[in-house]
Every structure is written in structure tokens, then in C-alpha cells.
């Protein structure tokens, strides 16, 4: 855990009401979210097709928060400039889809964005070894990518712990973001293990409570760790 550093909350709009996306992004912004997490899916790397760069550009007009764009697509290099122009602040590509990851990271930076790399639950953190000093963010998937509302995969907790140790050992400042199954029960456990950015979809955009109430609950769940 990066002590004394506020844990960031990144609502995933995948669970939002797409018919009133602007308002939902505004609600999350007013409620104190730190990033807006945007899940881009191509129907190939993952089963669903979600949104493309024009929607990112539309969201850009509804918030000043950094847009955290998670590309779950094949050949992501081909799309980087489009998403950067649309207003992405952070662009994250999957290790599993990006053949020339070093080039991909440079392309993201050259486009003026922060560069993130993501790995699936079954991909070992060892594949990050060489690229780790180059990235601004590592996104550890804590469910298999593709859908919101899935259950947190317990074995990923150990990956968070090990990656945190490695980042600290090498004095690297990359953010450690976790994505999938994060809620008031799992949030404190992943933060304790070393996560610094929490993506949450179903726990924030749901019919039980307002976006503000949901974000507050997440922050309250972190209180005992004194990092919220
Ligand atoms: C899944 C996406 C996530 C998803 C998380 O592939 O990357 O961002 O929206 O949803 P929850 O928080 O509901 O598991
Ligand atoms: Zn995501």
C-alpha cells in the first residue's frame, strides 16, 4: 500500500445507464470520483461490444476528471491515437492483446496520455517485469474481463500483494489499479494488499442507491485502513 496516499475511486460506466451517460458521469464527478473508467470492448478479445472513441469524446464534455480508458480490444495499437484525440487521459492496453507492448506504451505516451498495462487473472505478473519501469499504471484484472457484476476472484489478491512488493522494491511509482468485483467487502482487502486505484461498476451504478451514496459507502469501507 502506498501509505498516506488517498486511494482513488474510478467508477466504471459499464454499469451506468447508457441512455443517460452524461448525467451519470456528472453524478460520479460530483460525488468525488477520481477517474471515470471507460471499458472499450470489441466483441473479439471479450464477448461484448461496448463503445468507441466518439462516446469518449462525448463523455469528455461532461466532466473534468481524468478519463481512464481500458481497451479490451485486439490490436489496440491501431486505436490509440483515436482515443487520445477523443480526450482519454490514461490509456490501458492488455498484455494479452498487444504484441509489441513496448511500442504500444511509447505510442500512448507520444499521444500525450498516461500509459497503463493490464493483465488477466490467469496471466502471471512476471510478464510485466521488463516493461514495469515504463508504465504509469498497472491494471490487475480481478475478474475475467468482459462483464460487470462478476464475483471477485480470490486468487488475484496474492497477485496484488506480489506486485505491490515488486513496485516498492524497485521504487516504482506506477499506480496499481484493480478491476472487477470491487465492493464494500473486497475494497479494503485489495487496498490492504496494495491497490491504489479501485475500479467499480455494479457497486456504484445500481438501483439500490445513488451514485453518491455508493461512492461514500466504498470510502467508509476503507476507513479502518486510514487511507480514504
Ligand atoms: C470488466 C470491466 C470492468 C467492469 C467492472 O471487464 O473491465 O471495468 O465494469 O465491473 P464490476 O465492478 O461490476 O465488477
Ligand atoms: Zn475495466
TL;DR?
With 228 residues, the chain is α/β, with parallel strands linked by helices. It has helices at 21-30, 53-60, 80-86, 101-110, 156-169, 187-193, 211-221, and strands spanning 8-11, 36-41, 67-72, 90-94, 114-119, 137-141, 175-179, 197-200.
Describe the structure.
There is one protein chain. With 228 residues, the protein is of the alpha/beta class. Helix content is 29%, strand content 18%. It has 7 helices and 8 strands. Strands 1-8-7-6-5-4-3-2 form an 8-stranded parallel beta sheet. α6 (187-193) links the parallel β7 and β8 (197-200). The longest helix is centred in the last third of the chain and has 14 residues, at 156-169. It is globular. The protein starts with 7 loop residues before the first strand and ends in a 7-residue tail after the last helix. Zinc ion binds at residues 12, 37, 39, 70, 179, 199. Residues 12, 14-15, 37, 39, 70, 143, 145-150, 179-182, 199-203 line the site of D-xylitol-5-phosphate.
Shape: globular
Strand content: 15-25%
- For the largest sheet, list the strands in their spatial order: 1-8-7-6-5-4-3-2
What is the strand tally?
8
SSE string, helices as H and strands as E: EHEHEHEHEEHEHEH
Number of helices: 7
Radius of gyration: 16 Å
Average predicted confidence as pLDDT: 96
Described by strand count, sense and barrel closure, the largest sheet is: 8 strands, parallel
List each distinct ligand once. D-xylitol-5-phosphate, zinc ion
Q: Calculate the terminal CA-CA distance, rounded to whole Å.
A: 12 Å
What would you call the structural class? alpha/beta
Uncertain residue ranges: none
Amino acid at each position: 500500500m502506498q501509505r498516506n496516499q488517498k486511494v482513488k475511486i474510478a467508477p466504471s460506466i459499464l454499469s451506468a445507464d447508457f441512455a443517460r451517460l452524461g448525467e451519470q458521469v456528472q453524478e460520479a464527478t460530483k460525488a468525488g470520483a477520481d477517474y471515470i473508467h471507460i471499458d472499450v470492448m470489441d466483441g473479439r478479445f471479450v464477448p461484448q461490444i461496448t463503445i468507441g472513441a466518439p462516446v469518449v469524446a462525448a463523455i469528455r464534455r461532461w466532466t473534468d476528471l481524468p478519463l481512464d480508458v481500458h481497451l479490451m480490444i485486439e490490436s489496440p495499437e491501431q486505436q490509440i491515437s483515436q482515443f487520445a484525440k477523443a480526450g482519454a487521459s490514461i490509456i490501458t492496453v492488455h498484455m494479452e492483446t498487444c504484441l509489441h507492448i513496448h511500442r504500444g506504451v511509447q505510442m500512448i505516451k507520444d499521444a500525450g496520455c498516461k500509459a497503463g498495462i493490464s493483465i488477466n487473472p490467469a496471466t502471471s505478473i512476471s510478464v510485466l517485469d521488463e516493461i514495469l519501469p515504463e508504465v504509469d499504471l498497472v491494471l490487475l484484472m480481478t475478474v475475467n474481463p468482459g462483464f460487470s457484476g462478476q464475483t471477485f476472484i480470490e486468487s488475484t489478491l496474492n497477485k496484488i500483494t506480489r506486485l505491490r512488493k515488486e513496485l516498492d522494491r524497485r521504487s516504482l511509482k506506477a499506480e496499481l489499479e484493480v478491476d472487477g468485483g470491487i465492493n464494500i467487502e473486497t475494497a479494503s482487502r485489495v487496498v490492504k494488499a496494495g491497490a491504489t486505484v479501485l475500479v467499480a461498476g455494479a457497486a456504484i451504478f445500481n438501483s439500490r442507491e445513488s451514485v453518491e451514496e455508493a461512492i461514500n459507502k466504498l470510502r467508509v469501507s476503507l476507513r479502518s485502513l486510514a487511507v480514504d
